[in-house]
Specification:
The complex is a heterotrimer.
Chain A (H helix, E strand, L loop, with lengths): L5 E10 L2 E7 L2 E2 L4 E5 L6 H9 L6 E6 L2 E2 L5 H6 L2 E3 L12 H12 L14 H13 L15 H14 L4 E5 L7 H12 L6 E5 L3 H7 L2 E6 L2 E6 L1 H6 L1 H11 L3
Helix pairs in contact in A: 3-4, 3-5, 4-5
Chain B lengths: L1 H27 L6 H18 L4 H22 L9 H23 L15 E4 L2 E4 H22 L2 H11 L1 H6 L4 H27 L5 H4 L1 H11 L4 H21 L6 H13 L9
Antiparallel strand pairs in B: 1-2
Helix pairs in contact in B: 1-5, 1-8, 1-10, 1-11, 2-3, 2-4, 2-8, 3-8, 6-8, 10-11
Chain C lengths: L20 H6 L4 H6 L2 H8 L4 H23 L8 H16 L6 H25 L2 H21 L1 H4 L24 H23 L1 H12 L10 H27 L9 H14 L4 H19 L3 H18 L9 H13 L1
The chains are: A alpha/beta, B mainly alpha, C mainly alpha.
Chain lengths: ~250, ~280, ~350
């Protein structure tokens, strides 16, 4: 078996006296569609923040391609192929869709520090950005400002920005949050079509989507991994039904 | 030692004026650079009341505080509240604009000259205490400062109003849902902050002087107190004000060639070491 | 819905349905811009008696452009920008007064370098904090420099100002004349060069990243950007430009007043930029033109009312016209853009 692309070892994060992440050891293989589920407050977003370097763990380590990246800054992890989307949109309100994506593409191509040639004359940046915009079905709104778009469209920009980094590992923090059901199916169709060798860690509340998308599921409760297995096993597990699914089905 | 006591006294005065800013800026998160204008208003009220109308000093000071609080409440209703959600830059620009207007009005009404204030006899002169020569007025300032610090600390830290205020600032929607009249809490708090500025401005005329350039001249000092003390912390403001008062007076006394340089250095170093201030909450 | 092509971003060739023309077009100068730059030429002929004032406008415009980079684009609120203006002014002054080097262009380069150095030294302190802390650090640094210049009497001339500055002819050809002709052409030429540089910078990927940091700094690390590194670069560049403005003032007036470092100058340039419209280069230029002209016309009449008006205008801008004077052209620009996309 190939070594895991993304791995955590006994990851612990405490805030004051509160333990948000409690000894999490995850191991995600290349090309996996790994879902992370758990009730509200289980520490899912905290875990993503630890993986991306937004937070520093109290103890334990994060490994990317077998290399310890625990102390590495966020932007350096992105350069190593780890990108993420945010649970709540973090976009650039006054930039157009194309500008936003071009910005992200320019950074991926390493031309983000260039201060002389106009962005409009960086043909390779514009072409790549335009392709991404097209692939995410944003072409018709490419020149509209982000703030003027519907939430569903904004969610697609959120994903486009992450994809612009050409990630090998993509962390999706509730990509469908706040998106109407009709649009969320489109969104997941888009995600399902991502390259097979891209490793994806998905946090999601909608169980239908999770069970269709994931080939591996970890259940997080109170900051600790309760269970990790295939969707079939997880769905049938009595503890999961009690802790999580029972609650989710009411929603 | 007298230098140290003078430093403490001028620190107390600084505290008296700046603590109002600690309330509006620190607790309400409003970057109110016009705070000095409220202090100046209090100063002019006090000067007019005691000088022209013949009201005794202490009642004149109280009147100054009340009048400034009323002005603060009025301006809060009319102008400030429209900028609560605005960016820091907008608040900075708006309040600087207010300072300019206040300075122009002051010069128009009172001319560019320093305003005199006559202290009552019982606040003049010096007393000898344990081998120290202590100015009576300075001792009065220290006492007043301590009283205000204690009172505010109780009022904001312990009472229900304090809890309501914190709730209103941190989560206005939640606070409204809990039945707190957020608008009222804000106007009362702003009036309190302005009133304190008026009080400080009134008792400060004797030491700081009073002329139309007052709001800009001391603005940086007020901001330093709040920034170094930690936004919204009353004890922090007290400690910072005394620290600055002592550094300032001692610096000017022993190292006149360096002068005010020392204050700004202290501030920048403090802010770099503790970006959230001495006792600030994150 | 068509599925996403698996290797989407590796696909070669341009996208079929996204029109790239608007982004490409943004880099090209527009007709109105050419018209704008005829203004300094026209002013030369129309107001030959007021060249000193016009020079002031050009210098102020350079200073405002510098602030626009950090405040309008990168979003760093500073009330201490005069620090770099002052450092540049003193650097150029001392180069001539103390070292006897009076070449204006050399002085400009020297001042820019010294100011850039000052920017490099101060940037970690400024960028460390946020919000009020950052604002206070900018004020504090400005005040420290003011007090330092004030106390270092022997070196700076203190409150009396730095004297004994003499300029050799520009490029060895044109000496600085009594009517300020050379000074005016020199200042406008420098302004034009600075503007061109600034125009390239804000339209580049780097400039785009500054705007993005302004809008949402928290997102940038997730795009692989070190926010501090970008802001440091912008801060140093702006410091150098402010230094150039300060040096121009020194060279054209042959005197350095301690006011170059004053808090008032920091507040005033902020006001000028906001008046014109922050976050757009022409906002800085228009703000400088309008402010300096009005100041000249009104302040002599009645300084009291000048202050009152400034205050009222500031309050009015914040409450009603957040985009400044250049905000007036927004509706027209949008109309124009719509026409162009339709075409």
């Amino acid at each position: 078996m190939t070594p895991p692309v993304l791995e955590t070892r006994d990851l612990v994060k405490t805030f004051g006296g509160f333990t948000a992440t409690d000894g999490v050891s995850l191991s995600i293989a290349k090309g996996a569609r790994h879902a992370l589920i758990g009730p509200n407050g289980a520490g899912k977003t905290t875990l993503v923040n630890l993986l991306t370097g937004f937070l520093t763990p109290t103890s334990g380590s994060v490994l990317l391609d077998g290399a310890d990246v625990t102390g590495l800054a966020q932007h350096k992890r992105v350069a190593r192929g780890l990108a993420r989307t945010f649970q709540i949109n973090r976009l650039f309100a006054d930039l157009t869709v194309l500008e936003s994506v071009a910005l992200a593409v320019a950074e991926q191509m390493g031309v983000g520090r260039r201060f002389w040639r106009p962005i409009g004359r960086h043909g390779e940046v514009l072409d790549a950005a335009a392709r991404l915009v097209e692939d995410l079905h944003l072409a018709d709104v490419a020149h509209r400002r982000t703030r003027d778009l519907a939430y569903g469209k904004q969610r697609l920009i959120e994903i486009a920005l992450a994809l612009a980094a050409r990630p090998r590992v993509l962390l999706l923090d509730e990509p469908a949050a706040g998106v109407p059901t009709s649009e969320s199916r489109e969104l997941f169709a888009a995600l399902a079509a991502l390259p097979a060798d891209m490793t994806i860690l998905l946090i999601e509340h909608d169980m239908d989507l999770v069970f269709r998308f994931a080939d591996r599921i970890s259940v997080l409760v109170s900051g600790a991994v309760l269970l990790e297995d295939t969707p079939e096993v997880v769905a049938g597990h009595p503890l999961v039904r009690e802790v999580y699914l029972g609650e989710a089905h009411h929603v | 030692m007298t230098v140290v006591f003078d430093g403490i006294a001028s620190g107390m005065l600084l505290f008296l004026i700046a603590v109002g800013l600690s309330v509006t800026l620190g607790l309400m998160n409003f970057v109110n650079l016009a705070h000095g204008a409220f202090a100046m208003f209090g100063g002019y009220v006090c000067v007019v009341a005691s000088g022209r109308w013949g009201i005794p000093f202490l009642p004149a000071v109280v009147l100054a505080a009340l009048a400034t609080a009323a002005l603060g409440a009025l301006l809060e209703r009319l102008l400030f509240r429209r900028l609560y959600g605005a960016s820091q830059l907008d608040q900075v620009l708006f309040s600087i604009g207010l300072v300019f207007v206040a300075m122009a009005i002051a010069r128009w009404g009172f001319g560019p000259a320093q305003q005199p204030i006559r202290l009552p006899a019982w606040l003049q002169g010096q007393v000898h205490l344990g081998g120290l020569d202590i100015g009576v007025y300075r001792a009065f300032l220290v006492g007043l400062g301590l009283a205000v610090a204690y009172g505010l600390h109780r009022a904001i830290g312990v009472t229900r109003f304090g809890a309501r205020l914190r709730a209103s600032v941190d989560k206005p929607d939640v606070a409204r849902g809990m039945g707190i009249d957020v608008d009222r809490v804000f106007v009362v708090t702003f009036a309190l902050g302005s009133g304190l500025a008026g009080l400080g401005g009134a008792v400060g005329v004797e030491l700081l002087g009073l002329d139309p350039s007052f709001p800009l001249r001391y603005l940086v000092y007020f901001l330093i107190v709040v920034a170094v003390g930690g936004s919204g912390s009353i004890p922090g403001s007290l400690i910072a004000a005394i620290l600055i008062g002592v550094c300032d007076v001692a610096g000017k006394y022993w190292m006149p060639q360096i002068g005010a340089f020392i204050i700004y250095t202290v501030m920048v170093v403090m802010l770099i070491v503790r970006p959230h201030g001495l006792l600030g909450r994150k | 819905m068509t599925p996403l092509t698996p290797t989407s971003s590796d696909r070669a060739g341009p996208a079929a349905t996204v029109d790239l023309a608007p982004l490409r077009r943004a880099a090209r100068p527009r007709a109105l811009e050419f018209a704008f730059w005829l203004l300094p030429v026209a002013a030369w002929f129309l107001f030959p008696e007021n060249l000193a004032l016009l020079t002031q406008i050009a210098i102020t415009a350079i200073f405002a452009l510098s602030l626009d980079l950090v405040l309008g684009y990168a979003g760093i609120v500073t009330l201490g920008h005069a620090a770099f203006f002052g450092v540049g002014a003193y650097a150029a002054g001392m180069l001539s007064a103390k070292l006897g080097i009076g070449d204006p262009l050399l002085g400009l380069v020297f001042a820019a370098a010294v100011s850039a150095l000052a920017g490099a030294i101060t940037s970690p302190f400024v960028l460390r904090g946020t919000g009020l802390t950052r604002l206070m650090v900018t004020i504090g640094i400005g005040m420290m420099l003011f007090e330092a210049a004030n106390k270092a009497n022997d070196f700076t001339g203190g409150v009396d100002g730095l004297q004994g500055i003499e300029m050799t002819p520009l490029l060895g050809l044109w000496s600085f004349d009594l009517w300020g002709k050379t000074a005016y052409v020199y200042a406008v030429a420098v302004l034009f060069v600075v503007f061109l540089v600034a125009r390239h910078v804000v339209g580049s990927p780097f400039g785009l990243s500054l705007r993005a940091i302004h809008m949402n700094a928290a997102r940038m690390p997730a795009l692989g950007v070190s926010v501090d590194a970008r802001l440091t670069a912008a801060w140093i560049a702006a410091a150098a430009i402010a230094g150039i403005a300060g040096a121009l003032l020194t060279q054209t007036t042959q005197f350095v007043s301690i006011d170059v470092l004053g808090f008032g100058r920091s507040a005033e340039i902020l006001l000028i930029l906001i008046l014109g419209g922050a976050g757009r280069l022409y906002g800085a230029l228009v703000g400088a033109i309008v402010f300096v002209t009005l100041h000249h016309l009104l302040a002599d009449v009645d300084p009291e009312y000048w202050q009152l008006w400034i205050g009222l205008v500031l309050i009015g801008i914040v409450l009603f016209a957040r985009n400044g004077l250049m905000g007036v052209v927004d509706p027209f620009e949008r109309l124009l853009a719509r026409k162009e996309t339709k075409r």
